[in-house]
């Protein structure tokens, strides 16, 4: 056993045994709050940290858990062992009902919506006579000191139960973090559009995170109600609870397993002892301290307290090995395969500007088709229409006979269409290895499977081969944001091709890349093509296009003007006039 693991086990034993040798009632009370609000912060971490959906409404789920357990016990005599799971189920259902419409909103709009919904919940309970309205609910005291009712006269049993709630929440987050679901949630947090384009159903995973988060928060609320023995809308539905769990996760390190665990004692003990020292003379000073801490952490330690434990990455190699090799000569004729991508009469206008006007295009299986033309010709707009980021006004497009227009991007990916973007769209805080594995096939991938299992071994082997081919294997554990611009271009290509799509759309793969890597990118595209992949490549570097592509389609003013071999297109008078100005 390593020294670090031994220290962790000793620390855990000390934490569990603490009530046996510490009799200070105030300290034990503070630790119970540490565990319960730490568990709520850990639950919030799933949706606010991993999925990046900042919620200021988790007090609603905390309150639903508290009220459900208290009402069932006080009015129906139902054991809290049943009540807390009923509360968790109700909170999960409520979160899904809230999340489905509000997840159409992004960033601060979503945060404001959750804040408003939490306030609606507080006001509703404040006026709901069946649950005590403003008077609240008292828990019956004759159930005390009975394990089946989770009520005691002393604090140690509450200490252990609360510690168990924190352990449960942390275990759930640890399992999610260690498997596919955690990787996908972090991808959604960093770039939702890019996650959609590699096939991740982002709304499904956001709802999944929201449901898990709400259920765990409700469990913490239920145990809190059993501890305080009296609840009302002020002490279990107040916005300060939402703020507290957000601050714990932010200060500790959101999007990490141990961030809320580290942040909870720091914030809650600071809160409890500050109020004890100042009494009623400085109400609200704890919120001033919270605000200052958030500012300081944002400025100097954006990754939170757990960032202090992060190891710095080693030096990055400045260039990709093998760059500058001459790519193989282009085949004299395009492959004669069947049509895999067909576009007919596609149109898209922005107001009075006709960006794409009646595009007809056929892409043959096994070819590399270059899509060239002047700026504003409609090339990227065409890609956006095909991949679900824009809704075309008219037209038809299909991959192997399956229509792709007006579908969500992840469904387009499931059909077999992959894409890279003109601007870099990798997940900068994920490792290179995790970025590539995000590109695995997601069609028919269940949430349970993604939570408890890793990517299949065969897919991992394919990912290893791609990283070796792209000379990125030695950087597999490095955050993708630390790679050079050209290496990130290569990484985005590896992510797109891992699942072996039927057609890969590349939007300016060589743009802005070090000239030493341009030929390398062309060589890799040709190598992948020879393995059976079909490409459509937008590129302004005509030398790159001529050396890489079998055929070229020339676009101008939203239309495909001509299609042919590189030599035929270069000699076409319409191309010479509209592209070269001759």
How would you sum up this structure, described in words?
The strands form three sheets. This protein has a six-stranded mixed beta sheet with strand order 8-9-10-5-11-12, sandwiched between helices. Strands 4-3-6-7 form a four-stranded antiparallel beta sheet, with helices on one face. Strands 1-2 form a two-stranded antiparallel ribbon. It has two domains: 26-305, Orthogonal Bundle (ABC transporter involved in vitamin B12 uptake, BtuC), CATH 1.10.3470; 339-580, P-loop containing nucleotide triphosphate hydrolases (Rossmann fold), CATH 3.40.50.300. The chain starts with a helix and ends with a helix. It is an alpha/beta fold and 582 residues long. It has 23 helices and twelve strands. Helix 3 runs antiparallel to helix 4, helix 3 (58-76) runs parallel beside helix 5 and helix 6 packs antiparallel against helix 9 (202-228). A hairpin with a 2-residue loop joins strand 3 (339-350) and strand 4. It has helices at residues 3-21, 25-50, 58-76, 80-102, 108-126, 155-178, 180-190, 192-197, 202-228, 233-236, 239-252, 259-278, 285-300, 379-386, 409-415, 432-437, 447-452, 457-469, 485-497, 515-530, 542-548, 566-571, 573-578, and strands at 137-138, 230-231, 339-350, 353-364, 368-372, 394-399, 402-403, 417-419, 503-507, 535-538, 551-556, 559-564.
